[in-house]
Design a protein that fits this description.
The complex is a heterodimer of chains A (225) and B (420). With 225 residues, chain A is α/β, with parallel strands linked by helices. Chain A has seven helices and ten strands. Chain A has a single domain (2-224), classed as Rossmann fold (3-Layer(aba) Sandwich), CATH 3.40.50.300. In chain A, the strands form two sheets. A six-stranded mixed beta sheet of chain A has the order 6-7-8-3-9-10. A four-stranded antiparallel beta sheet of chain A has the order 2-1-4-5, covered by helices on one side. In chain A, strand 1 and strand 2 form a beta hairpin. The longest helix of chain A has 18 residues, at 174-191. Chain A is globular and about 50 Å long. The two termini of chain A are 20 Å apart. The model of chain A has no long low-confidence stretch (mean pLDDT 91). Chain B is α+β, with helices and mostly antiparallel strands. Chain B has two domains: 4-53 and 276-418, no CATH class; 103-226, no CATH class. Chain B has helices spanning 4-16, 18-50, 85-94, 134-137, 150-155, 164-170, 202-207, 215-221, 241-255, 271-314, 316-324, 329-369, 383-410, 413-418, and strands at 60-65, 83-84, 98-107, 114-118, 121-130, 141-145, 159-163, 181-184, 187-196, 210-214, 227-228, 230-235, 266-270. The chains are: A alpha/beta (225), B alpha+beta (420). The A-B interface holds A 49, 52, 54-55, 74-75, 77-79, 81-83, 87, 89, 93-98, 102, 106-107, 109-111, 115, 154, 158 and B 4-5, 8-9, 12, 317-318, 321-331, 409, 412-414, 417.
Chain lengths: 225, 420
């Protein structure tokens, strides 16, 4: 599903060059659930952003679901993100002026699905997250756990191949964190969606099939849980 | 197609900071408001001045006789002379550029008035002897009867066409003046027509006090012999009347033994030159109005652009989220441009409406108060100008949104997402 080899990434700020990724090779099969761990600044988020086509890599090869990701213009990148990828962020990143249902429906809006239809689908997904009664609430009326569940519903609605989660439990307490992880593992099992989770919590990482440790821009360890 | 999500977003963006939106909108509102008011006032001034011309052919020249100022061919200076009937044919033959040539006389000399009597009523009016062609140079609205025709001229008929004011003073209110007789300087004439001036204001009341009779009748009845009072000449379409004017003066000088260097002997007035001066003046005013108006509008639009930049900056993260979820640059750009266009068009439309409303109010008050409208009449902007300015607004709004929109998509999605 995800196949990267020899990925390099350097950030240039003024005269400073920061070599963040120094040749990453990684193969993730369809339906795998993998966690990525590492100290802050190790490059784990950068890797996730490159996998999410939110950022571009300098060297190496990235093949996502058989499509070579290289020199994409923003339009193509946006369409690939919409079609293949779902994002879950630490800070939820819900659109503040849209209610839960509209937030979930947003990816379908960009696919030009009619409002009635996409809202109906969004309701279905919210129902699965147990949030049907909260569909018409704005994000600031929801708790952290609820917000993250809305975000997961939003990541799922376009039926992506891969879900990329950047510290999905970083802003949640331990009980809610486990609930969110329950949902993610369920999805992984039942829908066979590939999942990459960046985290620095060991008990979160333990719940995935494989943990990849990144140190200083390179994969140093792959642990099977 | 109506897109509820798009309008929800526009509403969210514009209502987030209402005072800021209002102040920005006010800039555009003020720009278009000023443009409308200035344009309307310019038009009012133009209408006021042009009403003095009526439907008069503006490519016309008046030529009359004065006193010579240079001795020539044995004549001393200070000689008086008259144009004669034979001059008409000579001018016609010598100058092919002439369209209408109307020799005219008036009773009592230029600007003189004659006593006109009907029964117990009397009045002082201007009496002209005219060719039928005169009606083509300075047309009037014929209310009843007819104007002078060729047969009248040929048979020297004693008929007159009278102005509306003449009728009001000499006839009863519901009396039909046609086929009635009036006495002018002791001679009876039959009224065959009644007219009303096409001008308005003071110029019109002047016109309505005129009486026209056949040129030949006038010459014969009042013992003028062969003399012509003055010429009224128009040039053919597309030819400057100044050319005709110059040639006519040359011909007349030769025929009346006037020195070619004598500039005082022949009086002449070129309406076209005056008219062009006026047209030039109004064009100047119009250009000025557009420059100032567009300038003001531009300032407003730049304000919109500025605020959109701020809005885009504030929403960087939100736009980043949308892009992560699959919003293409096209969607983002069109969203921001729509916001900008909505803001400018809405406030501009408001300014346009209020401006036109104010002009209408002024118009109404002017009409109602019966104020002297010699210089200012019917201020207003025409429909095309209104539509044009609205179109300018929409385009300007789009341009105002362009820079912020480009800025919004120039940021990498990941940088936008990280923005706090």
């Amino acid at each position: 599903m995800v196949d990267i080899s020899n990925i390099h990434k350097t950030y240039i700020t003024g005269n400073n060059k920061l070599h963040v990724l120094k040749g990453i090779d990684l193969k993730v099969d369809a339906g795998e659930m993998i966690s990525v761990m590492g100290a802050s600044g190790s490059g784990k988020s950068t890797l996730l952003n490159i996998l999410g086509i939110l950022d571009n890599h300098d060297h190496g090869e990235y093949i996502l679901n058989g499509v070579r990701i290289e020199n994409l213009n923003e339009r193509k990148a946006a369409m690939l993100r919409n079609k293949f990828l779902g994002f879950v962020f630490q800070s939820f990143n819900l659109v503040s002026f849209k209610n839960a249902m509209e937030n979930v429906a947003l990816p379908l809006y960009y696919q030009n699905v009619k409002r009635k239809k996409r809202n109906a689908i969004a309701m279905e997904f919210l129902d699965r997250m147990g949030l049907k009664d909260w569909a018409h609430h704005l994000p600031n009326e929801l708790s952290g756990g609820q917000k993250q569940r809305v975000a997961i519903a939003r990541a799922l609605i376009a039926k992506p191949k891969v879900i990329l989660a950047d510290e999905p439990t970083g802003a949640l307490d331990s009980v809610t964190s486990q609930e969110v992880m329950d949902i993610l593992t369920d999805i992984n099992k039942n829908e066979n969606i590939t999942m990459l989770i960046v985290t620095h919590e060991h008990d979160i990482a333990k719940r995935t099939q494989k943990t990849i440790r990144i140190t200083d821009g390179m994969i140093t360890e792959i642990i099977k849980n | 197609m109506f897109d509820l999500d798009r309008w929800q977003e526009i509403y969210h963006v514009l209502s987030k900071n209402k005072l800021r939106t209002f102040l920005t909108a006010f800039g555009v509102f003020w720009g278009i408001f000023m443009l409308v008011i200035m344009m309307g006032s310019g038009d009012g001034l133009k209408n006021g001045i042009s009403q003095n011309f009526g439907d008069m052919a503006t490519n016309s020249v008046f030529i009359w006789a004065q006193q010579t100022s240079v001795p020539y061919k044995g004549f001393t200076r200070g000689r008086r002379f008259d144009y004669e009937n034979s001059d008409v044919r000579a001018l016609d033959e010598a100058i092919p550029e002439i369209k209408y040539l109307a020799p005219r006389t008036n009773v009592g000399g230029f600007n003189g008035a004659s006593n006109v009597i009907r029964g117990l009523k009397s009045g002082s009016f201007q009496i002209f002897g005219d060719y039928p062609v005169f009606d083509s140079i300075d047309p009037v609205n014929l209310l009843q009867g007819r104007f002078i025709n060729e047969l009248d001229l040929k048979e020297k008929r004693k008929i007159v066409v009278i102005g509306l004011r003449v009728k009001e003073l000499l006839f009863e209110k519901d009396e039909n003046p046609v086929n009635q007789y009036i006495q002018i300087n002791g001679v009876y004439f039959k009224v065959v027509g009644l007219f009303k001036s096409k001008r308005t204001g003071e110029a019109a009341s002047f016109d309505n006090q005129r009486i026209h009779m056949p040129f030949t009748t006038c010459q014969k009845t009042y013992n003028m012999g062969d003399a012509i009072g003055f010429f009224n000449i128009t040039s053919k379409d597309g030819i400057q009347v100044a050319i005709v004017e110059e040639k006519a003066i040359k011909v007349l000088k030769k025929r009346h033994a006037i020195s070619p260097t004598d500039d005082a002997a022949i009086g002449h007035f070129n309406l076209e030159v005056e008219y062009k001066k006026m047209v030039g003046l109004f064009l100047g005013i119009r250009i000025l109005v557009w420059i100032v108006g567009i300038g003001t509008l531009l300032a407003g639009v730049i304000g919109v652009s500025n605020i959109m930049l701020v809005v885009v900056k504030e929403r960087t993260k939100e736009i980043g989220i949308q892009r992560a979820l699959g919003a293409t640059p096209r969607i983002v750009i069109s969203q921001i441009i729509t916001e900008s266009v909505v803001l400018t068009t809405f406030s501009g439309y408001f300014g346009l409406t209020l401006g036109v409303g104010l002009l209408e109010l002024i118009n109404y008050l002017l009409d109602k108060s019966g104020a002297n409208t010699e210089m200012f009449l019917h201020p207003g902007i025409n429909f095309n100008v209104a539509i044009t300015s609205l179109a300018i607004l929409v385009v300007a709004g789009a341009f105002a949104g362009m820079v912020p929109a480009r800025k919004a998509v120039s940021v990498k999605p990941i940088d936008a997402l990280r923005y706090e």
